[in-house]
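Wait, mind explaining this?

_____
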Amino acid sequence: MVVTGGATRIGRNISLALARSGFSVAVHYFSSENEAKEVVSEIQSSGGKATHVKCNLSDSKSVSEIISKAEESLGPVVGLVNNASKFSHDDISNISTESWSDHMEVNALSPILLIGELARRLPDGKMACIVNILDQKIAQPNPDHLSYTASRYAMSGVTDALARGLAPSIRVNAVAPGHTLPSPEQTEVGFARAQSEAPLGFGPSPDDIAEAVVFLMRSRSITGQTIFVDAGERFLARERDVYFETEGV
């Protein structure tokens, strides 16, 4: 089981939850080496099997190495969580070729290549499962973070297409989180407001996202589905990104 961006934030919770459920986990990272080692150590100390794998997802030519390196330590890779993503602000007034390309390479192209490598290396007779982490924005988009949002739409389409194309040996599903953790520039007050405004009166936690991933990994009859874990945030139909609406920017 490979979890991209599996060392920090939501990825960390996903890695630990999968390990608790009995999966061997390859924790992918790029710059968070210490955190990756800590997650691996925590899994191993609990009796699980884990390894860490470094790769820059901005270099799509090297991403296939993630699967081969994980395989060396854990055996055939039969699960992949495409969790890592680039998230930088742009909109129609300042979108650039560089911003578009950077988001698409990390958030769409590299995940697609990883899926392809897993499919090529999957042993005959083995079943595998992919879970793509998306964003509730795909249900109610706004014009902020335009390149990022487009990359999430790309992976939503890929989820549907590959659920058809890779059956019956590989299931492909997605989880679309709501506002789960504060962004670096967000205040505690703004984050609390953002979560409290969700229809359920609270926002999802990283463990909520991880539980949905584990559910999909275990659900042998589910493919081509997207689970929104957003406490109903998508129903708010925000006109701007949640940061701008809750921080008074």
About this structure: DSSP finds eight helices and seven strands in the chain. Residues 2-246 form a domain with the Rossmann fold fold (CATH 3.40.50.720). The beta strands are 2-3, 25-29, 50-54, 79-82, 128-133, 170-177, 226-229.
